[in-house]
Amino acid sequence: MPEQTAPLVQIRDIKKHFRLPGGWLTGDVRHVYAVDGVSLEIFAGETFGLVGESGCGKTTLGRLVLRLLEPTAGEIIFNGKNLTQLQGVEIRRLRREMQLVFQTPVSSLSPRFKVKDIVAEPLRTHHALPKDEIHAYVLDLLTKVGLGKQHLNRYPHEMSGGQCQRVAIARALALNPRLIVLDEPTSALDVSVQAQIINLLDDLRTEHALTYLFISHDLNVVQHISNRIGVMYLGKLVEVGESETLFSQPLHPYTQALLGAIPLPEVSDQPRDLVILQGTIPSPVNPPSGCRFHTRCPLAQEICQRVEPALTEVAERRLVACHLVEPASGVHIHPSP
Questions:
Q1: Measured in Å, how far apart are the chain's first and last C-alpha atoms?
Q2: Cα–Cα dist 65/183, whole Å
Q3: Rounded Cα gap, residues 26 and 13, in angstroms
Q4: What is the pTM of this model?
Q5: Sequence ranges of the domains in the chain
Q6: Would you tell me the crossing angle of helices 115-126 and 161-173 to the nearest 10 degrees?
Q7: CB of 181 within 8 A of CB of 122?
C-alpha cells in the first residue's frame, strides 16, 4: 500500500437519506437510509475497493464523494478542501480532479457523439485549447487505453462493450484527475475483457499517479486490484482492511459469509468455512436497531440487538464494527453461546 501521511479523501460520518413520496397529509414521512454514517479515508495512489450486496449503498457513497449527490449530513474532504461547503465556480474547478467511470459503458456514452468528441468534451468544457492540440491529445489518450486512430470517427454503437469502456476511461483521464470513482466498471463485460480492463486500470494508476475508489460486487476482481477493501452492509461500513489480510482472515461475520460465497473450482482443495446467511436483507427504509446485521448473523447475541457497534480499529489498519471482535493482538470472534 502506498505510504501517505495525509489522506486524499476523508469521509466523515456521511449520510444520504432519500425521502419517499407521500406522507404530506398524514405526517408519516419515510426515508430510505441509503448511506447512514460512513467514515472512511482513501490515501493517494491506492485503490480502495468497496464491496457489498446490491442495495447496500456502494454507488450512493461513490456519488457522494464526487458531490454528484448532496449529503444529508457529514463532510467530505478532498485534498484538504471540504466539498460540502463549495459552490459554483469552486466546485466546478475541483471537478477536474475527480472523475467517474460508469457501470454500463455503452449507455454512459452519448450515441450522437463520435469517439473523438466524447473524449474531447471535458477539454472543451474546462480548457480553451486549439482544435489541433485537442485532436492530438485525444489520439494520445485513445492510444493509452488500447485504441487507435481508426476509432476516432466511430459512434458507440459501432464498438464492443470493452471498447466503449476504454473510451469512457480515456474520457475520465482527459483532465488529469487525481481521483477516479469506478462504479462496477467490468460487470457488464465478458470475463476475458474484464481481465484486460482491470490490467489497463492498474497500469494507468501507476503511470498517472491515480487514486481509485473501485466499487464492485465481484470479490475476485476487487481482491486482484485493491490495496484496501471496505465492506458495506445496509448503508454502513462493517469492516475495512488491507486486501490480503481481509481475504485471509475476515473478522466480521458478514465478510466471512461474502468470502464463503465465492465459487471455487471443483478441483480446488482449499478448505472453506461456510457461513450460511438466513433470511433477506432488511429494508433500508426501516433498518434494524443495534447492529444492522444481527437479523441474519449466526453469531448474534443480545447486545447486538440493542447497541450499534462502532467501526473500531482492532489491529493496525484493520477496522471492524462488531461486538464480538476484541481489539487485541490475537483478534478473534467469540463463539455463539
A1: 38
A2: 12
A3: 31
A4: 0.91
A5: 9-262+272-320
A6: 20
A7: no
